Amino acid sequence: MPNPDESYDVVIVGAGPGGLSCAKNLAGSGLSVLVLEKSPDIGMKICSGEISSKVFPGEDPTKKFKGAQEWRRVIVGTKKGKTQIDFDHPFLWTVGRYELESHLRKECEKDAKIAIRFSEPVVGIDSERVRTIRKTYRYRFLVGADGSFSKVREFLELPMEDIVGYAFHYVVPKPADEFRVYWLPDTFPRGYGYMMSKSRGATMIGGAMGGTDVLHSRLAPRVKSWVKEEFDIDISKHKCEGFKGNADFRGWRFRRDKDPGAGDKHADYSHNIFLVGDAAGLLNPVTTEGIFYAVKSGEGVAKHIRNDPEGKRIMDRMESTHRAQVFLFSVFSNPDLPFCRMVEWVLENPTGGIRKRIFDFIFWRFFDG
Ligand SMILES: Cc1cc2nc3c(=O)[nH]c(=O)nc-3n(C[C@H](O)[C@H](O)[C@H](O)COP(=O)(O)OP(=O)(O)OC[C@H]3O[C@@H](n4cnc5c(N)ncnc54)[C@H](O)[C@@H]3O)c2cc1C
Fold first, then answer.
1. Residue 147 Cα, ligand 1 centroid: separation in angstroms?
2. CA-CA 20 to 30 A from 369: which of 232, 274, 289, 291?
3. 283 in ligand 1 pocket by Cβ < 6 Å?
4. 223 and 325 housed in the same domain
């Protein structure tokens, strides 16, 4: 007799911040939840591992996460040079991906109806089942939390072309002692250069570029020559890595083919497939902050599945915030428009006068929300 497929109320693809937040917010609902993760462990995403105050409002990440590093100083670079800006309170905290996801995972483990399986990449999806390299699982609700190479998004046949960005950097094996961002529209059009933590313990030095026409292969040579020029490091001795980010949002709830039936107390059955985080394209294209948007959309979708109207309210707010971010990104980052040069003018010396006021206003809007 062939093994019957295992059945779950909710199958979540991906145990990143979006998937784990979704699972955590389903705890206590009585629903059976399965999280499928292709990697052997949590915390493996290429990422700086920094969170803003929006992620745990009212909490101090240095108390919540052992070893978390707070950032109160940013070095802003332009073609005219570098400026150091000091604030009286932190704008970001490096908590590390492993630490952040361990925290979310522990919350999930409080509910015996939530299972997380590692080293199980999802390789096939239909309107009732997901297939991994090991097994096939039936779902009533499917959540795509599988990042910017999402299989669930692929199954939904949603394109990912409008606001997609690429990051490419060298990894220096020592903790970052500075947080640097460079506005260099001629070198990194619709992007920026950076030197920041790679989670905890290492430093990433490289650049990001956004837009439909950017290919990772075009970014790498730019980063290579810029890093050689700007930093005193021998790049031949350092590992390099690249990743795609997705800010091309095309909705968060979907339905494919089958009507799963009526009469259940959970959620609106007209949609039973959801996308969160980078799979949904909720990355902020301006700052490339994505952890908050993944965690919050995971919460929003979980609440929606639980039939809590707050879920849809969260997702509606995220959608309108995202549209505003995309608008700002397209206006201010386009090197062919004058706004891009205005940003350059502000960043050349944001330490006093009107430039400081503009800088502070925009900077804190983005990080503190
Ligand atoms: C270089 C770089 C630095 C960044 N730094 C920051 C930062 O400091 N702060 C910040 O807020 N954002 C940062 N971001 C953005 C941030 O990393 C993402 O927005 C965030 O990770 C999105 O979370 P997620 O849960 O949606 O997806 P991910 O974190 O990408 O998680 C998706 C999970 O799904 C798994 N998966 C994928 N495919 C499958 C499959 N087929 N089957 C099973 N599992 C699968 C993956 O292994 C992964 O664990 C950075 C991005 C880059 C590229």
1. 5
2. 274
3. yes
4. no
Q: Is residue 325 part of a domain?
A: yes
Q: Into how many domains does the chain fold?
A: 2
41 plus 187 within the same structural domain: no
* Closest ligand 1 atom to 204 CA: 1
Q: Please report where in the chains the tokens 């009526």 appear, as a residue.
A: 262
Going from the Cα of 338 to the center of ligand 1, the distance in angstroms, rounded, reads 33
In a domain, 67, yes or no: no
Cβ(35)–Cβ(15) below 8 Å: yes
Q: Which residue from 22, 241, 291, 367 has its CB within 8 A of the most atoms of ligand 1, so it is best to mutate?
A: 291
The reply to whether 121 and 198 lie within a common domain is no
Question: Tens place of pLDDT for every residue, the chain, 369 residues?
Answer: 556 789 999 999 999 999 999 999 999 999 999 999 999 999 999 999 999 999 999 999 999 999 999 999 999 999 999 999 999 999 999 999 999 999 999 999 999 999 999 999 999 999 999 999 999 999 999 999 999 999 999 999 999 988 889 999 999 999 999 999 999 998 998 899 999 999 999 999 999 998 666 666 688 999 999 999 999 888 999 999 999 999 999 999 998 765 545 444 555 557 899 999 999 999 999 899 999 999 999 999 999 999 999 999 999 999 999 999 999 998 998 888 899 999 999 999 998 899 999 999 888 888 877
CA–CA distance, 346 with 357 (Å, rounded to integer): 10
Which atom from ligand 1 is nearest to the alpha carbon of 282?
Answer: 19
CA–CA distance, 34 with 39 (Å, rounded to integer): 15
Tell me, in angstroms, the distance from the centre of ligand 1 to residue 275's CA.
13
Q: Which two tokens stand for residue 102?
A: 């361990």
> Does the C-beta of 165 come closer than 6 Å to ligand 1?
no
Q: Are residues 351 and 226 part of one domain? A: yes
Instruction: Tell me, letter by letter, the H, E, C secondary structure of 22-74.
Output: HHHHHCCCCCCEEEECCCCCCCCCCCCCEECCCCCCCCCHHHHCCCCEEECEE
Q: Verify that 255 and 275 share a domain, yes or no.
A: yes
Pocket flag, ligand 1, residue 210 (CB < 6 Å): no
